[in-house]
Amino acid sequence: MEYRQLGGSGLKVPALSFGAATFGGGNEFFRAWGSTDVEGARRLIDICLEADVNLFDTADVYSDGLSEEILGGAISGRRDKVLISTKATFRMGEGPNNVGSSRYHLTRACEASLRRLNTDYVDIYTLHGFDALTPVEEALRTLDDLVQSGKVRYIACSNFSGWHLMKSLAVSEKYGWSRYVAHQAYYSLVGREYEWELMPLALDQKVGTIVWSPLGWGRLTGKIRRNQPLPANSRLHETAAQGPPVSDEFLYQVVDALDQVAEETGKTVAQVALNWLLQRPTVASVIIGARDEMQLRQNLAAAGWSLTQEQVAKLDAASDTVPVYPYWHQRQFTERNPAPIVGR
């Protein structure tokens, strides 16, 4: 497995990482993703480590903390062999302060995550979303305190707008606090909005991208085809409304191109979609999930090879969309405002 620098930090992370959202199945939403128990999680982690994938991502809200508990149990006795990433900000409880990025909530959330994970530190601690009601200075000072205390090694953010991230980086620089080394962002062949502003920002500010839902919320697994019904066991039956919107015709257009490239390469549709992401600028790691061993091994096989420039161009063309303003206007001024160069 290739290891990549995480943004401007000194930390190396695997090009593929494992998402533990399928652990637990503690409520209806997450049961649609998976319900792996500790024994099953331990086996999946064994397979990941055999493939040199050592970064495991979770969050406190995944199955109301059960994902963290199962991950903690599955890595017992080998904490030194893994990197753990977890997240906070979303609501964890009914009280008025059990949500957001306030000092009160983040401090309690981090301590609760450490208990569930059965560890005294996390390697990457991520704000799951932007809290517009808490001053950026308060959130970042709290995160810096967690780093200084040794409970957190690196900090990251997720689902931020460009100005959210840039303001945060500026505040960290102003006060000499820990800065975000990564942005965990949605990015896929059917969701390329990340490229409009967040990718140029990440290139300029050396922020690594950890990609979530790289298969477009389960749409690019190879099970969805033009003029075919949705598979009976698809999680989209339960979760489509909570995911990013994609028109049917656009999805089929992308899947058609994926089918062509999959036939050329002898790979699966999902492997091609994941490999396309591995060749994009700023991408440090792509989070893969799996309900079982077979699915995991198939996803791991997305690394270790590369699409040709012609195949990448075919997928680029099929998945291209007209961006919203001001990005469509900026595309007309490439002489002084070039688009990011694709490829590492």
How does this structure look, described?
This protein has 344 residues and is of the alpha/beta class. It has a single domain, classed as NADP-dependent oxidoreductase domain (TIM Barrel, Alpha-Beta Barrel), CATH 3.20.20.100. The strands form two sheets. The chain has an eight-stranded parallel beta barrel with strand order 3-4-5-6-7-8-9-10, surrounded by six helices. A two-stranded antiparallel ribbon has the order 1-2. Helix 2 (38-50) crosses helix 3, helix 4 (103-117) runs parallel beside helix 5 and helix 9 (248-265) crosses helix 10. Helix content is 38%, strand content 15%.
List the helices and strands and how they pair.
Layout: E1 3-5, E2 12-14, E3 16-19, H1 28-31, H2 38-50, E4 55-57, H3 66-74, E5 83-88, H4 103-117, E6 122-127, H5 136-149, E7 152-158, H6 162-175, E8 180-186, H7 198-205, E9 208-212, H8 236-239, H9 248-265, H10 269-278, E10 283-288, H11 293-300, H12 309-319, H13 327-330
Parallel strand pairs: 3-4, 3-10, 4-5, 5-6, 6-7, 7-8, 8-9, 9-10
Antiparallel strand pairs: 1-2
In short:
The chain is of the alpha/beta class and 344 residues long.
Keywords:
344 residues; alpha/beta; TIM Barrel; 13 helices
Calculate the terminal CA-CA distance, rounded to whole Å.
16 Å
Strand order across the largest sheet: 3-4-5-6-7-8-9-10
Instruction: Name the helicity range.
Output: 25-40%
Overall 3D form: globular
Q: Pairing-aware structural class of the strands and helices?
A: alpha/beta
Count of the domains? 1
- What is the level-2 CATH architecture name? Alpha-Beta Barrel
**Spatial extent as radius of gyration:** 20 Å
Order of helices and strands: EEEHHEHEHEHEHEHEHHHEHHH
